[in-house]
């Protein structure tokens, strides 16, 4: 079933009561380190279009960023996991808004091994059993992180029930994985998804991404598998805000969901959530 439908703006990307302040002012976006790159690229694009705005991107573990939003310590956060019914209820009560996620990109959690590893793929069964093993063979970037949260959700487990090792930071996992040849790193695809970026290329050359076997088929993280959500650990990134009017946060969300913002998402090597039809008239 196709998740990504042809649309201009999803329901979570609606315009609110218009106010001129969307094009000037300052704002901080909280994002997990795993998708900092795409968030920064969108922020830079917005500031180019609206020079009187200043947007800072600050990294914070996904769960902690969501708590800051609920407690009015942040105006906008980037999320990847599904909220529980209780979390949605709390969001509506605290923020006084319906839960309308502004979805803007398909990212993925990927499993990596050193370049010289003989391992060529990994199965859902291996992942499930490995996350219960005392060997702690999977390395995550920390607790409360988007990667751990998403894998736990995909396995229908609570993060506290899983067993794993920790190396803080997605890039650090890549850099240090050679020291642990019997381990498997778990990082966000956006860590090195930028196709023409020199640093991303250097990071990609140090590791090997393992295709994931599910129901007898192997899936990698190409555009097609992300678009159709065939890759088992595809995740949809979305913005949440507590801003009730059309100020800078909602202006930024609208921009990210339009064609210009979606082109930036694609340049980041991720799958845009909103697809745009290109029409050519023949005479």
UniProtKB/TrEMBL annotation:
Pfam family, one: PBP_like_2
Keyword Signal in record: yes
Lineage: superkingdom: Bacteria
PBP domain sequence ranges: 25-256
Entry keywords, A to Z: Signal
Species name: Chryseobacterium hagamense
Protein name: Phosphate ABC transporter substrate-binding protein
InterPro entries in the record: PBP_domain (IPR024370), Phosphate_ABC_transporter (IPR050811)
């Amino acid at each position: 079933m196709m998740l990504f439908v042809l649309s201009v703006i999803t329901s979570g990307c609606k315009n609110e009561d218009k106010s001129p302040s969307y094009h000037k002012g300052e704002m901080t976006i909280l994002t997990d380190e795993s998708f900092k790159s795409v968030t920064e690229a969108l922020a830079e694009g917005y500031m180019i279009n609206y020079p009187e705005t200043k947007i800072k991107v600050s990294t914070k573990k996904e769960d902690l960023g969501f708590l800051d939003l609920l407690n009015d310590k942040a105006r906008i956060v980037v999320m990847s996991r599904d909220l529980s019914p209780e979390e949605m209820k709390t969001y509506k009560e605290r923020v006084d808004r319906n839960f309308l996620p502004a979805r803007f990109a398909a990212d993925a959690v990927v499993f990596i091994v050193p370049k010289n590893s003989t391992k060529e793929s990994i199965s859902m069964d291996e992942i499930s059993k490995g996350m219960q093993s005392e060997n702690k063979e999977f390395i995550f970037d920390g607790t409360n992180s988007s990667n751990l949260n998403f894998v736990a959700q995909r396995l229908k487990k609570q993060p506290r029930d899983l067993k794993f090792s920790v190396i803080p930071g997605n890039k650090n996992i890549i850099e240090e994985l050679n020291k642990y040849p019997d381990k498997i790193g778990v990082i966000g695809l956006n860590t090195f998804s930028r196709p023409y970026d020199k640093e991303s290329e250097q990071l990609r050359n140090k590791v090997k991404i393992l295709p994931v076997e599910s129901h007898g088929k192997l899936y990698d993280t190409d555009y097609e598998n992300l678009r159709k959500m065939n890759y088992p650990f595809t995740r949809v990134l979305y913005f949440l805000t507590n801003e009730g009017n059309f100020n800078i946060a909602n202006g930024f969300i609208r921009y990210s969901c339009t064609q210009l913002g979606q082109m930036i998402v694609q340049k980041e090597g991720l799958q845009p959530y909103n697809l745009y039809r290109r029409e050519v008239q023949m005479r």
